[in-house]
Amino acid sequence: MSERVGGGRMVSGGSEPAHGRFVALLDVGDLLRVIDAGEDSLIAYLEHPNVTMMATIESRLNAIVCANGDEQAHVAIIARELGLPFVVQLQLDGSELERLEGHRVTLDPDGSLVLDD
Asked: Contact, 16 vs 110, CB < 8 A?
């Protein structure tokens, strides 16, 4: 059963839903964990737009969602160039980060984030 868990403003991509495994990249330790896991088809969450956190895994991303930022953020510009869906000002319902970590999610074209499993 799918459940909407939050939403934001789509600033790149978004003509089709993006599906993937949710990973929160809150610090370098999280990034290293994701690099070591070697998974593809990721939807990465950032607190603040940070292109450095994305550069090493950009080929494994299906979308990026960010709690802050706008369409002028460097990572938004990079996402547009790569054709990646990118949402800013993502508002999650409650304390969702831990619950979403590692689960399959869908980023809908309207900027909604949906928990799939």
From this structure: no
Distance of CA 105 to the CA centre of its chain: 10
CATH architecture of residue range(s) 3-115: 3-Layer(bba) Sandwich (3.50)
Q: pLDDT digit string (tens) for 16-67?
A: 999 999 999 999 999 999 999 999 999 999 988 888 878 889 899 999 999 9
In 10 A of CB 19, how many CB atoms? Answer: 15
- Angle (CA) 105-110-111 rounded to 5° is 50
Between CA 39 and CA 20 the distance in angstroms is: 10
CB 35 within 8 A of CB 56: yes
